Amino acid sequence: MNRLQHNLACFNTFGADESWSLKTYEKHDGYKAWRKILAGEMSPQEVIEEVKASGLRGRGGAGFPTGLKWSFMPRDVPGQKYLVCNSDESEPGTCHDREVLRHNPHCLIEGMAIAAYAMGATVAYNYIRGEFIDEPVPRFEAALEEAYAAGLLGNNIRKSGIDFDLYTFIGAGAYICGEETGLLESLEGKQGKPRFKPPFPANFGLYGLPTTVNNTQSLGCVPAIIRNGAKWFADLGPEGSGGTAQFSVSGHVEKPGNFELPMGIPFKDLLHLCGGVLGGRRLKAVIPGGSSVKILPAEIIMDCTMDYDSLQKAGSSFGTGAVIVMDETTCMVRVLRRIARFYMAESCGQCTPCREGTGWLYRMLTRITAGQGQEDDLDKLLDVANKIEGHTICALGDAAAWPVQSFLQHYHHEFAYMIRNHGRSIVDESAEAAA
Amino acid sequence: MSDGIVNIEVDGKPVEARKGQMIMEVTDEIGIYIPRFCYHKKLSIAANCRMCLVEVEKAPKPMPACATPVGEGMKVFTRSPAAISAQKAVMEFLLINHPLDCPICDQGGECELQDLALGYGRDVSRYNERKRVVKDKDLGPLVSTDMTRCIHCTRCVRFSQEIQGLQELGTIGRAEDMKISMYIEKSVDHELSANIIDICPVGALNNKPYRYSARAWEMEQRQTVSPHDCVGSNMYVHVLRGTIKRVVPRENEEINETWLSDRDRFGYEGIYSDDRLLSPRVKQDGAWEDIGWDEALKILAENLEGAGADKTGILSSPGATLEESHLLARLADHLGTANIDYRIRQRDFSDQDNDPVFPWLGSTIAELEASDAILVIGSNLRKEVPIIAHRVRKAALAGSKVSFVNNDAFEYHFPVEENIHDGGLVKQLAGIAVAAAGKKKLPKPVGALVKGVKPRDSQRRIADSLAGAKHAQILLGLIAGRHQASSALRALVAAISELTGAKFGVLSEGSNSAGASLAGVQPHRGSGGHKRKAAGLHAGEMLDASLDAVLLYGLEPDYDICCTDDAVKKLAGQKFVAALTSYNSDALQDAADLLLPIGTFAESAGTFVNCEGRWQSFNGVANLPGEARPGWKVLRVLGNLLDAENFDYQTSEEVRDELRDLLGDIQPDNRYAGKKALGKVNGADDPDARIDIPIYRTDAIVRRARALQLTPEAQRSAYEGG
Q1: Is pTM beyond 0.80 here?
Q2: Is residue B597 a contact partner of residue B213, using CB atoms and an 8 Å limit?
Q3: For the residues A209-220, what does the mean pLDDT come to?
Q4: Exposed/middle/buried for B719, CB within 10 Å: 0-12, 13-18, 19+?
Q5: I need a surface site. Which of A24, B86, B203, B555 has the fewest CB within 10 A?
Q6: For residues B390 and B363, is the Cβ–Cβ distance under 8 A?
Q7: What is the mean pLDDT of residues B187-199?
Q8: Which residues of A touch B176 (CB under 8 A)?
Q9: How far apart are CA A374 and CA B362, in angstroms?
């Protein structure tokens, strides 16, 4: 198998003229899977089994098996059920859902239609991040209109007896609304504050009714899975990480960008694809899955393959596939301070450890970078992070704690150096030495 | 394992729990305390403070006890190192931005955060960064704010959403900038709003009138009962050297649960108004002069003895205690007069012979919650009896069909089936009665009232909802009681109740209408509802008659008397008027010749019988001002001066027990006994009649409660001339 096949699922129309149009999508076998279902060739159970067998895992960050999640929906219980697509893409470093919405919105629409059919939901919402209002939203809306006009959505679609309506909802730019229950609250018109679980959305979701929330990319992969079969998809990646993944590579690389590649590609190859480290400098560290996951130093990440198991074994996780590359000139203290500021600003504020702790972390780090650090600050940083982790309603608290824990684990000496030298970074030192 | 029961283990002890219970509910029941801030048993679960984190076997991380349902075989550790460490972690976070200004905080000494910080906090803070400061909100005259102290538990927000049904508070902002706020700057106006003072676990929301006037540990807590409505909410007063500093709810699930209406909480301020009567006073040649008690009582006794028996009248307040009422009734008997009445706000006495033994709710307050259909007639329910309105709201939220028939479109913060507010109460009820009767014949008393009436759809729906319900309840409110045609209303309601099987209940004036009825403060009934041989003058007739001596007890003629117009003028025209009163108002000076200072509910022992028929006794809790004396003692001495027999009571309990023995076993019964046809109401059913009394004008104490009078609610009614 060619390990460098690009754009096999969500990005399959990329490069074509008007890749976002229905015409182009259909040229790339678009809506074939949906038409097959409309023709009555697949039962909902068969769809769920197919997705289960494909090894597709949630691409929003947690990596929960998608088919299994679908099977939690009380399919046979009467009453309204909902499917919600989480396009509130806001994990720092991540920008591939935006590309799906801009360049191949139909694959998401088809994926949502299939998913809703499998779970017995007749209404779906696509919750799109507010900042996407310029291009992704209009593209998605236009595609939706096209799909309705082509008779692919609506009531009793093509006399199949299947109903499916899809609506766009635009968020207001809060990171926390990417958390699925925060998203549901926001969708209901309330403040985006995550709910305590259980009950899970499959039992008590939107307006208290059974709901499944899936990430854009997860749903966008579904048409390809149904079209080409579960085995095709599963075989693209290693055991436990089926299919393709979209990597958003940013930071110190020559050619940053979004790449849809088979799961399990060695990090080395991915770096090579991006033209290597910027300016031919030395790689220092990589955050492999968005700012919430733990940082990996160069010597560890260079031996990793980009899939769930490998990254977990290395002490981090696949996350959203947002690969943030840092070269030797990067000051780890300043990076962590920037990350801490993000979580301080984006905490919803409802539970105590996250509301109070994220600000504490940021203030300590700010003090250290301003040269006011004290010797016991590093123990305190770690202790505060440990006290946030696992003590909150949602995972934002954990996401705020993990960077602190991993930065201190791998780069403790840089922090200690800065405290000792009143705000001077270890990086500045080597830069001066080089000069 | 029986159904619905799960076996769990808490700190090594096996415990049986009900399925679906949260860990916190189970531990509370067995007396294991888990620290908490956001959890409140009457509010929904938020699980946001994280203080109640406990260790649960097999759970990967500590779980919030308030939001974790029990499961079979679950092992919970509330005091394990992991649990304590999680709780201590949360406490540290709570304290980093808390100002720790306990020495100048009113909550100090009774603060949940302070108490728990003692157990879970550190001695020295590790937080060296800048602390958060939050600007205070102006929530009006009742609740003070120190928002920097807020720990964001959102109890107040959930209270306003879930208990009030009117969201006055919410959160704005995110992360550290999250604040408790109004969306648009305004005061908290709901009649239960000040309960946020009690539920706030820290000193962020506090009692504004009480602010900085005492410390929690220097006050004594004494029990009493609210004098402002027929519910008789249980309260504690906090007293510093004989002065009431504040009032808080005394939990009683059967009456006020954990709540208190703002009127009950802040009414006490009226006790300390500047126009308290401090000494007996007599009018000599048009000028008032202070005199001693001996002289004053002598003047009163002489005038009463000198007056003809049928030329003596006693008007009492429905807020007078059971003991005072009993002594008044006994004095009237001794003087040989039946001109005695507490029904000073009633306008229609035409059918008084068919009065029940006392005005009764028809069920208990708690039972109202379980009604599946409720019809309220002639009542501004939320303002008249906030605690009953809360029960009705709970019923409505649980699916009960609640309807209103009123002269005004009052606002309710719960689903209302039918809200009829046009066309006159009698006319509306007649329609409902006809609808309820269907093909059956309506009883004779209401014959003339329903003649030719064709029910409207809304009236039919109400009749159907009552007939179709398992536990239907009709409530006749205070506006109905003050109505020009209240007899017709009562007869119609009785007929509807009979036809639909709905319970018939009455809300009554003041805190002790039931007690005054039982004691026999009525011209047609003696104690226990025994018919008098000959009825005396009722409240409406008394002032129109020319009397030799009138005794006013605990009332203000300019505000409290609705049974006749120009009460002050009419009183001034009587030969001799004495008032036993706590206040020295202009109107009383105009109306009376002799003023005797008596204590309020707070300053004398007594008993109120609430609308359920529940007897609630209380002691005097505050010092009497000046020369004022408890009313029952004044009446007792007066009885001695008049040589009344067996008037040697030593305690108020003796007075109460004497009446209790006299009454024997009296059962309340709201069935209408009348057989005679009532006449047409003609002009008495005026749909535009404004006979509502604003919530903060109901009695002499409330009218003088400063903070309540500053509320928008009170200001509004002042402008509207209510």
Answers
A1: yes
A2: no
A3: 97
A4: exposed
A5: A24
A6: no
A7: 95
A8: 344, 347, 349, 355-356, 358-359
A9: 72
